[in-house]
Amino acid sequence: VDSGFPRSPRGVVKLGRAVVALVAFLCFAASRSRGAYTALAAMEVVITALFFLLYLLKLDKKMCWLLWPLADIFNSVIAALFLLIVCLFAVIIKTNNGTLAGGVFGLVLLVLCIVDAVLLFQKISFDGPRGRNTPAK
C-alpha cells in the first residue's frame, strides 16, 4: 500500500474527483434527472475510485503490460468531454434545482478532470525505462 499517495497532489485530485462526482450523482439522482446525467456521474465515481485503488495498492507497478497513467489521461480527457456536453445541457435546461446543482458540480468535476490530466501528463516519461530499474540491453 502506498500510504503517501492520498496526500500527494495526484491523490488529492483523485479523491476530489470522486467526491465531487458522488455529489453530482446524488444531486442528479435526488432530482430524478434524465438517465444520462445520473449514469455519467455514477460511472465517473466508479472509474475514479478504481484508478485511485490502482495507484493506492501499487497495482500499476505490478501490471506493467499497460501504461496506466496514459490510460488515466485518456479517461480524464474523455470524461471531460462528456462532462462538458452533459453538464452544459443540465445547466442550460435546469428542469429543477437538483439538475442545476448537479450540472454545476459536473462543471467543477470537468475542471478537476483537466487538472488530473495535466498532472498525469507531467508524470509520463516516454524515453525512460518503465516498471524496472534495469538498463536496456
Automatic annotation (TrEMBL):
Segments passing through the bilayer: 12-31, 37-57, 69-93, 99-121
Membrane topology: Multi-pass membrane protein
Record keywords, A-Z: Membrane, Transmembrane, Transmembrane helix
CC per GO annotation: membrane
Any Pfam family the entry gives: MARVEL
Main location: membrane
Keyword flag Transmembrane helix: yes
Subcellular location: Membrane
Domain MARVEL: 5-125
PANTHER family: CHEMOKINE-LIKE FACTOR (PTHR22776:SF45), MARVEL-CONTAINING POTENTIAL LIPID RAFT-ASSOCIATED PROTEIN (PTHR22776)
Record protein name field: CKLF factor
Encoding gene, per UniProt annotation: Cklf
